[in-house]
Amino acid sequence: MAVEEALGILNVHFGAAGTLDRLATEKDDTFRLATPAGERFIVKFSNPDEDPNELALQSDLLDHLARHDGGLPTPRVVRDRDGVTFFTHIDRHGQPRLVRMLTYLEGTPLDRVDMTAADRALVGAVLAKLRLAMADFSHPHDEREIAWDVQHLPKLAHLLGGIRDPEQRRMLERGLQRFHEIEGLLKQCRRQVLHNDFSRSNIVADRANANFVTGVIDFGDAVRTYIAVDVSTALLNQLDAGGDDTMFDACRDLLTGYLSVAGLTSTELEVLPHLVMARVIARALITTWRAEQFPDNARYIMRNTHRGWKQLHYFLERSRDHISETFAGAPEKVRLESI
Q1: Distance CA 202, CA 126 (A)
Q2: GO MF annotations for this entry (predicted)?
Q3: For labeling, which of 9, 187, 246, 312 is most exposed (least CB within 10 Å)?
Q4: Which among 180, 199, 187, 192 has a CA at the least distance from the CA of 143?
């Protein structure tokens, strides 16, 4: 999607003008719009294969969050001149592109911020608030199956053939077997619609702001899944490079903040570290596959994959029971002020 074409679409449908900066994304065209009045917005032109049901789910969820808790730092959907949340544009190549606009959330992406323990606790608290705000949300499309929802991890086993290194492939096979061993426990846990991609690249922050977190973005992986799956995704992105038990220190900071707002059951705490491992496996399989499909974007796709091999080795070199005890004794509730 050329900048000139995008600006023409925005002018017709939103009456918007200004300058567009292209942002790095995995599969769509995303721009930051700066208007002459000084306002900023995010504009997305979907991949031609995008299912409209996916965007309907995201738009309805963002509207729900705005109604439920206006203080949550989530984007607001900007409706076009006809009052719709997204529409179809046939681009100059004859492809259907779903177009939408969102408010822009100021801040620095968390993957560029050096965080303290207190910062990580505040991040965890925001994730818990999101969970509570989504608790009563439902949508006809929220039971969709997506590759990044690790409750479906065994369905990715067919991607093992794309792992060329024999030792890495054996590690992934062992990890899949370990996941099979905890599936029964996972099925005892609670489910609801959740963000499911609470990574540092999807969070923006400002240390000058009392709340630290100023934005949670990219609800593209929102789905009805296990609460523990949602938390494990956030923990993976705080995981150290690996090697010993200190690998989880930053994770515990985030978990402390989370538990200050919303509790987890003993079973959820038990499966949590195994789900972190499951996310490491999913990331290795999915990104390797996608990088082969889209070699021009391989650097972006694989940006977080390589460090996972040492992390996976840590999990596999310890017994299932040892891993299950990783977060044992975490309090059901703590006071955030004590951090």
Answers
A1: 13
A2: amino acid kinase activity
A3: 246
A4: 192
What is the domain count for the chain?
2
Contact call for residues 110 and 124 (beta carbons, < 8 A): no
Residues 213-244 pLDDT 10s: 999 999 999 999 999 999 999 999 899 877 78
Phi-psi region of 95 (alpha: psi -120 to 50; beta: other; left: phi over 0): beta
The answer to whether position 337 is within a domain reads no
84 within a domain of the structure (yes/no) = yes
What's the rounded Cα separation, in Å, for the pair 24 and 201? 11
pTM of structure: 0.91
Domain contains 338:
no
List the domain range (segments joined by +) for residue 326.
109-332
Q: Which residues contact 183 (CB under 8 A, 6 or more apart)?
A: none
Element containing residue 99 per DSSP (H, E): strand 96-103
Which residue is it, tokens 């940006």? Answer: 303
| Pair 253, 327 in one domain | yes
pLDDT in tens, 310-319: 999 999 999 9
Confidence of residue 328 (pLDDT cuts 50, 70, 90): confident
Please report which residue ranges of the chain form alpha helices under DSSP H.
3-14, 52-68, 117-134, 166-186, 227-236, 249-259, 266-293, 298-301, 308-316, 320-324
